[in-house]
UniProtKB/TrEMBL annotation:
Gene3D superfamilies: 3.30.70.20, Nucleotide-binding domain of ferredoxin-NADP reductase (FNR) module, Translation factors. Its cofactor is FAD. Keywords: FAD, Flavoprotein, Iron, Iron-sulfur, Metal-binding, NADP, Oxidoreductase. Pfam families: FAD_binding_6 (PF00970), Fer4_10 (PF13237), NAD_binding_1 (PF00175). It comes from Pseudorhodoplanes sinuspersici. This is Benzoyl-CoA 2,3-epoxidase subunit BoxA. GO terms for molecular function: iron-sulfur cluster binding; metal ion binding; oxidoreductase activity.
Amino acid sequence: MSETQTATGPKKQHLIDPEVCIRCNTCEETCPVDAITHDDNNYVVDAEKCNFCLDCISPCPTGSIDNWRVVNAAYSIDDQFGWQELPAQEEIASAEDGGEAVDDEAAKLIAEAHSGSGGKSIAPASASKPTINLYNRGRPVTATVTGNFRLTEAEADNDVRHVILDFGDASFPILEGQSIGIIPPGSDENGKPHVIRLYSVASPRDGEKPKTNNLALTVKREPQGLCSNYVCDLKKGDTVQVTGPFGATFLMPDDPSANIIMICTGTGSAPFRGFTERRRRTMRDAPGRMMIYFGARRPEELPYFGPLQKVPDGLLRKHFAYSRVPGEPKTYVQDRMRATAEEMLVFLKNARTHIYICGLKGMEAGVDEALADICRSAGMDWASLRGDMRAQGRYHVETY
Ligand code: NAP
């Protein structure tokens, strides 16, 4: 701990795990009080500015932001810049060993700290327990590419790929909704290794094919994208350095009676392919319904368009929204939701309904407004319902 710190008694400190953080800057952009900053090495939280609003917790794609310690004196940002890993929880003095009589308060803080973010976004009650952060930059796992297929039509603007990674004998337990990190080879102009990129897993927990130790990703080639071009160009037999798994809240409920509404754009459909395959393989006769609102420019641009047509309506009710079909009005997912408000309302009134939103950051506000309008039309209050659903682990957003 630095000498500049003042001893103020035990207090909770918000920290970022440097081994898991992928330096994506989302937390720094999100923090409303500018408490998060970074240097070439680490993203850190300034204890003097952090007001525990927790706004940064949900947007963090890896969960590295959700770390807490109870400290007698706060770690400074300079301390944190130098870290390669988080320090262990220090011993907090109790009255018995001659310290201040703070043990009850400290115990409460430690318990709160270990319970994570305070419940802003939690996993569904029935979700399986995820394994997270098994591999990191210092200790990645090697996967072998066993497939790389183009998902969009040849004439489509977008090259979206279905990439299959096999883990051989290595353990890589994954749940539907989790993500993995890919380490692009090489280094940047300053000689530093490239930042890890995150991709949602598009296959269910038992593999791309049942009982295989592999997983699938849905990756769109970005014209200037360092990692997306690397992944989209991978050939069968190539090896890839992988970190993760990541994500402990955007998880599929295991309860067959859960209704699952999935709202996505483009490659944001990746986790929902995993959800759908999970139900199809293990809960074919589930009483809970699944419904997807899926937005793309045109049918040719919609990942998994062909296979999706073959999924029976009884398993997955599908609503497509196309924004750039010549001669047709521009339609976004939120427009389709409004157009099917009656159907949405049946689900929104049901306490077994879970909502998942994944895709473009820009869709978030539009989808939220649509849900508010749909609720208003039936005399319901979306803000209060959303709060309840979030607290019950039934409302999940993952947008970039
Ligand atoms: P895209 O092709 O750029 O867009 C898909 C559709 O969304 C288009 O029809 C687009 O319409 C529409 N759209 C644009 N703005 C919208 C808005 N404000 N509200 C509703 N719809 C809107 O999609 P993409 O490039 O595949 O991007 C998907 C996003 O998902 C990316 O940001 C990606 O990072 C994120 N994501 C990916 C994964 C993954 O595993 N790959 C996982 C989670 C999230 P127009 O362009 O015609 O306006």
